[in-house]
Specification:
The chain is of the alpha/beta class. About 30% of the residues lie in helices and about 20% in strands. It has seven helices and ten strands. A six-stranded parallel beta sheet has the order 7-6-5-8-9-10, sandwiched between helices. A four-stranded parallel beta sheet has the order 1-2-3-4. α1 links the parallel β1 and β2.
């Protein structure tokens, strides 16, 4: 299984096919975000994506949902969450939506833990937001899950131009028994959706 096959040289994929009976590909982001991946699709016995819209455009693609890891459940669940809302992501085209949502939540008196990796040129702008933490070296996945466990709500802001598939956040909310605020309206099409646990923020 190659995850993000666009990051591999074609020769590596072909060599693997000579040594393995079945070789599969999986793109865990929208195909249009990394167009180079289109070149690799024919190289695999099966190719999987997590956005239903991608499968409608190409009948050779197979739909598979994202997931959550439960290996740290016993280690990271605290007795009492210390944050109301948690988010981790990068500074990109979603920033205005993120700030708009967070300002509204902050004005409601909620305690936020918003963790962003961002270019140095944007750090000064973000310093005025007390709830934003600049993540320099990124977070390990275990650290991320620890922070999720320390919050009541996970915030999910989709890349509207890249995909409509569900990221890891809705599944982590499900797996770690958290509420979800999301801008991804497609969450309502999944069997685990319940309006008491998932709030769709229309931006």
């Amino acid at each position: 299984m190659f995850i993000r096959p666009d990051l591999f040289d074609e020769s590596v994929i072909k060599l693997t096919k000579k040594k393995a009976t079945n070789v599969y590909g999986y793109q865990w982001d929208g195909l249009n975000r990394f167009p180079k991946v289109y070149e690799t699709i024919p190289l695999f016995k099966k190719f999987y994506v997590f956005d239903k819209d991608d499968t409608l455009k190409n009948k050779d693609l197979n739909l598979v949902n994202n997931f959550y890891f439960d290996c740290y459940t016993n280690e990271v669940n605290p007795n009492e969450p210390i944050y109301d809302v948690y988010y981790v992501g990068s500074y990109d085209s979603r920033i205005e939506t993120i700030l708009s949502i967070c300002e509204q939540l902050h004005d409601l008196g909620l305690k936020l833990s918003i963790n962003l990796s961002c270019p140095k040129s944007e750090m000064e702008r973000l310093q005025k937001y007390s709830y934003i933490n600049i993540v320099g070296q990124g977070l390990s996945y275990k650290d991320n899950l620890t922070k999720i466990a320390n919050a009541k709500i996970i915030l999910d802001v989709v890349h509207p131009s890249h995909h409509k598939g569900l990221s890891f956040r809705p599944y982590e909310a499900l797996g770690y028994d958290k509420k979800l605020i999301t801008t991804n309206s497609s969450v309502k099409d999944y069997d685990f959706y319940h309006q008491n646990n998932n709030y769709i923020c229309d931006f």
